[in-house]
Design a protein that fits this description.
The protein is an alpha+beta fold. The protein folds into two domains: 30 residues; 159 residues, Sandwich (Jelly Rolls), CATH 2.60.120. Helices cover 24% and strands 49% of the residues. The protein contains three helices and 13 strands. Strands 1, 2, 3, 4, 5, 6, 7, 8, 9, 10, 11, 12 and 13 form a 13-stranded antiparallel sheet that branches. Strand 2 and strand 3 form a beta hairpin. About 11% of the residues have low confidence.
Length: 225
């Protein structure tokens, strides 16, 4: 009996190996989850999906000037819950260091966009060191954030707009470190879009049923004359 069991186990091994080989091949050909885009991807033409937003970058949408690193593959562009975020070697050093990055984008939403937001994380060391991120939109709105070595900073900005499902914008990053030993750097900036809240059909149905129930109760409680 034990001998027959050993023979049966040996006979099963080829089948098991076959299943393992098939599984390995299947995993090898499964699509890999999407990685974060780089500015090189964006400049070639790319799309990010962020919840109910589709953000499109046309080919040639990136411009880098001055002392910023020209290797676009070093910059990362990630979808966030309400827009996108860019990070990378956005830094210049004195004396006379300066740099500019321009990024064009188009946004399409499934519901109306009613608010625009911009946030950045940066540092400026030195009296003339300066860093700014601004965005201008085709709907007539503009946002601006700034950090200055001379004092004062505004790391967030927001604006309300007339409801629309599409907007186009240009974000400009500007850095200056004019004197020796100065530094201006922006670690990240984030562009956000807030959509008009619309009640879902199921919620509307529940609300309607509740109102009908209250109306029926009111009729029952109304005394007859």
């Amino acid at each position: 009996m034990a001998r027959e069991k050993r023979i049966e186990m040996r006979n099963r091994n080829p089948k098991r190996c076959g299943r393992l080989v098939a599984l390995t091949l299947l995993l090898a050909f499964l699509p890999v989850s999407a990685q974060a885009l780089t500015l090189a991807d964006v400049d070639a033409g790319a799309t990010l999906v962020s919840g109910d937003l589709t953000i499109t970058f046309e080919a040639g949408s990136v411009t880098v000037l001055g002392d910023l690193d020209m290797d676009l593959s070093l910059y990362s562009v990630d979808a966030t819950s309400d827009g996108f975020e860019l990070s990378g070697p956005l830094a210049v050093f004195g004396a006379g260091g300066f740099g500019t990055l321009l990024l064009d984008f188009d946004v399409e939403a499934t519901a109306a966009i009613v608010d625009l937001g911009l946030a950045m994380n940066g540092v400026a060391l030195g009296a003339t060191a300066f860093g700014a991120v601004t965005t201008t939109f085709d709907v007539g709105a503009g946002l601006g954030t700034v950090v200055s070595g001379a004092g004062g900073a505004a790391f967030t900005d927001a604006a309300s707009i007339a409801p629309t499902t599409t907007v186009s914008g240009t974000t400009a990053v500007q850095l200056l470190a004019a004197s020796p030993g100065e530094l201006a750097s922006i670690a990240t900036f984030r562009q956000g879009f807030e959509l008009l809240s619309v009640a879902e059909p199921a919620h509307l149905m529940m609300l309607s049923i509740g109102l009908l129930g209250l109306a029926a109760m009111g009729r029952r409680r109304t005394p007859r004359v």
